[in-house]
Amino acid sequence: MMREERTVHLRPLVAACALSVAFAALPARAEKLVFARDASGTAMARQAVTLCLDAAKTEDDAQRADTLQRGLEQAEQAVAESPNDAKAHFAVFCNLGRKLEDDGASLAGVANVSRLKSEIDRALALEPGFVDAMTAKGAFLVKLPSLLGGDADEGERLLRRAVALAPQHAAARLELAKALEEKGDTHAALEEARAVLTLADARSSAVEAREARELTAKLGS
Q1: For the segment 40-72, what is each residue's pLDDT rounded down to a tens digit?
Q2: Which class in CATH covers the domain with range 9-167?
Q3: Hey, where are the domains in the chain?
Q4: pTM for this one?
Q5: pLDDT in tens, 7-35
Q6: Fewest CB within 10 angstroms: 60, 91, 107, 190, which?
């Protein structure tokens, strides 16, 4: 099936931003690295990100919807008060993406695509070393139909860069594994998925470990 004909949902695109690990102690490489759970950004922006992460763990639909709405409102307020705060823009992407997914929306809405792209692009323009934003944009471009601006090659490039900057970032490696599977590179995808299992288990990331196990089983069958 052609990429333009697929219905593309938002949950895989925001998984990277909702499933990050704190890497604040990592040494800087070519540039300052920023992560969703580190201490960068305003307090309000960090709280908005936390609400998005909390929503990912919530089973109750009504509670999750309320958490995401509060997270989006806080993120938008954080952007209004500090428009140059990368984490605030990232928080909008995270909360809005999950909210749209839970509401049953797909990326077919051009307005949704435009706003999500604008927020994640702004986050990266402000913090080029924002690994979670880089991962989220890479997954976004891989899943997005080309007619709406998707670019699988550029998405894979961003995911590889995120992994190069933070090799122990399980979320980045998981999204790279999915991108490699998407283009039919089963062997490389399986290697990445296995690496995710080691990292996720070591850092007790149950959600990432589950997704990696499912992908490994699928690719190894």
Answers
A1: 999 999 999 999 988 988 889 999 999 999 999
A2: mainly alpha
A3: 9-167
A4: 0.84
A5: 445 554 555 444 443 343 344 345 799 99
A6: 60
